[in-house]
Write a structure and sequence with these properties.
alpha+beta, Diaminopimelate Epimerase, Chain A, domain 1, 2 domains, 5 helices, 18 strands, globular
Length: 290
């Protein structure tokens, strides 16, 4: 099976062209195998690019643990690049079918004639608590105070990172929880991330983002990704951070998000409007998986 390794800001996946390859009978098991960074190809998961009856292509995404996710912002930008660069659809504007519907893309080409940057209409955020989903008894979870202490949490971690113990929950087709703190570098993410991901109030688990606000409409964020762990970037997570910032009054409609793997540009005009995300997509190498 021919594969292509790609990444968006270091959020890397193994891509398989379902237009040309026979797809695996068990993609979840394949995702686990190829994602292994010691005995496989290495990546945050597996993404299948397949024909679509309603768009230029369809994306199916599987996390490194084999679970299927609805969306991946960095992954879908790479799908758009693959579709254009590999001649599946040679158009400056594309439509890709995803688990949250059909998304629209505007492509910026580099001097080599290949896609360098992608702007995505990510659709309107989902704010209804039951649809995110969370079992918290509220119509929307915006700046809700949550007790994040207990024997399962590291002692003193609040003070360590200057945490604001209020959460905002957003879905971009997949669920996210956003928390703000004074120093994201000091968040014990490897410990706290999985605790929040699997908390009982999030019945389908959740992506966890810690955010540090700067001046000039910029933030730095770190992510614990549902099913994959700590990742260098999360596109839908950055979109959720942009939404949370507007809803809580912390940031404005235009946001520059600094992620460990690089920067994303976000635009959200408020409730009733879609989120726009702009960022790079990179092809690394191709190979054959036996």
């Amino acid at each position: 099976m021919r594969f292509t390794k790609m990444h968006g800001l270091g959020n890397d996946y193994v891509y398989v062209n379902g237009f040309a390859e026979r797809l695996p009978a068990d993609p979840a098991a394949l995702a686990v195998a190829v994602s292994d960074r010691h005995f496989g190809i290495g990546g945050d998961g597996l993404i299948l690019i397949t024909p679509s009856e309603i768009a230029d292509a369809r994306m199916r995404m599987f996390n490194a643990d084999g679970s299927e996710a609805e969306m991946c912002g960095n992954g879908v930008r790479c799908v758009a690049k693959y579709v254009y660069d590999h001649g599946l659809a040679r158009k400056p504007e594309l439509q890709i079918e995803t688990g949250r519907g059909v998304l629209a893309f505007q492509l910026t080409l580099g001097p080599d004639g290949q896609v360098a940057k992608v702007r995505v209409n990510m659709g309107e955020p989902i704010l209804d608590a039951a649809k995110i989903p969370t079992t918290i008894a509220a119509s929307r979870v915006i700046d809700l105070v949550l007790n994040l202490t207990g024997p399962e949490f590291p002692p003193g971690w609040y003070e360590q990172c200057g945490l604001d113990a209020r959460i905002t929950c957003v879905s971009m087709g997949n669920p996210h929880v956003v928390l703000y703190c004074n120093d994201v570098a000091k968040v014990p993410l490897a410990t706290v991330g999985p605790i929040l991901e699997t908390a009982a109030i999030f019945p389908r688990r959740i992506n966890v983002h810690f955010v540090q606000k700067h001046t000039g409409g910029e933030v730095t964020m770190r992510t614990w990704e549902r099913g994959s762990g700590i990742t260098l970037a999360c596109g839908t997570g950055a979109c959720s951070v942009a939404v949370a910032g507007v809803l809580t009054g912390r940031t404005g409609p235009q946001l520059l998000a600094h992620l460990p793997g690089g920067d994303l540009e976000l635009d959200w005009a408020g409730v009733g409007h879609p989120v726009f995300m702009t960022g790079p997509a990179t092809e690394v190498f191709t190979g054959d998986w036996p």
